Amino acid sequence: MTKKHLITCSVMLVVIIISAFDLSNATVVKRPSVAHNATRFALIEPPEEEAAGFSFAEEVLPVNSKRVNRKINYSLWMHSYTKVQSNILHIKAEKLFPVIVPILEEYGIPEDFKYLPLVESGLREGTSRKGARGSWQFMPGTARSYGLKVNKKKDERLNLRKSTIAACKYLNDLYAEFGSWTLAAAAYNNGSIKLEKAMHRQNEDNYFRMHLNRETGMYVYKLVAIKEVIENPGKYGYKEFYAQIYNHTNLMAFN
């Protein structure tokens, strides 16, 4: 009995040692993996204060939202010189702003909406696949609703002054409906009916807290990003020269 007891104890001791060895190895394998993932996450997670100071039409981006920070950082990168590799946005702004800004002021539209045509048609020309055309990318039906002639002989969507007046009337109607300039911008992009349905479904009236389709969900962030690269070109790889061109006072001198 004593011999058998000794053998049994020896076997149990060996099993315990092997188990302890396996657990020790498992711990060693897992720890570097967790630490590595945590490091990667920390590198890509933007700081919460990153959105501080960014605004659109005097509506400030919420600085305590990591989701907002990720979106604005991504949009700033997408519109930096590193990504665009062209001064086309600044060149088009130089051409458009002297005409657009006084009309926005006349109709009581926040000046930040001067960046909307750069989002709508800044990197492309012509007619979109859906049929939108001009600097403000009006669809034919909407253009006609706001007094523009669109037919085989004439297309006033291509007339910057007339289309800007139409856009101002449209934006004022959208603001009257939604009570927010960021929501008005989102509705300009996606249509008021779709936005209203999304607001009702989510029981939400703050653009920055809403979950919208990819294009509309990034729309205001694009406006803010273009505002940034136009007003602070050197910070995003563009020539400092443009910082003076797009000062509001200098813009008025172009008229």
Automatic annotation (TrEMBL):
Superkingdom, natural source: Bacteria
CDD domains found in the cross-reference section: MltD-like (cd16894)
Domain (Transglycosylase SLT): residue spans on this chain: 112-205
InterPro entries: Lysozyme-like_dom_sf, Transglycosylase_SLT_dom_1
SUPFAM superfamilies per record: Lysozyme-like (SSF53955)
PANTHER family with a match to the protein in the record: MEMBRANE-BOUND LYTIC MUREIN TRANSGLYCOSYLASE C, SOLUBLE LYTIC MUREIN TRANSGLYCOSYLASE-RELATED
UniProt similarity note: Belongs to the transglycosylase Slt family.
Protein name in the entry: Lytic transglycosylase domain-containing protein
